[in-house]
Design a protein that fits this description.
Strand content: 35-45%
Number of domains: 1
Distance between the termini: 52 Å
Structural class: alpha+beta
Helix content: 25-40%
Strand order of the largest sheet: 1-2-3-4
Shape: elongated
Low-confidence stretches: none
Number of strands: 4
Order of helices and strands: EEEEH
Number of helices: 1
Largest sheet: 4 strands, antiparallel
Length: 79
């Protein structure tokens, strides 16, 4: 893989509502292992570390699996 030596910024196709205006989301990947998110044509960037993003992804997957398991259990009880 190519090492990341300088920040890379890209505009996404997904949109976000910012102060009542729908804008595209701009993502910046920093070499120190952080990701910056901001609405297009704004300067306020929210910076999140990659390890916190990974931990959040794990928590969401586990919660989704638990909810699916609970829904199956409820379906069996009500049949």
């Amino acid at each position: 893989m190519t090492p990341l030596n300088k920040p890379v910024t890209r505009k996404t196709n997904s949109t976000v509502r910012d102060r009542g205006v729908v804008r595209n989301l701009v993502v910046t990947i920093f070499p120190n292992g952080a990701v910056g998110l901001r609405p297009e044509r704004t300067q306020q960037t929210e910076i999140v570390t990659l390890d916190s993003i990974y931990a959040l992804a794990i928590k969401q997957r586990v919660a989704r699996e638990r909810a699916e398991k609970l829904a199956k259990k409820k379906a069996r009880l009500h049949v």
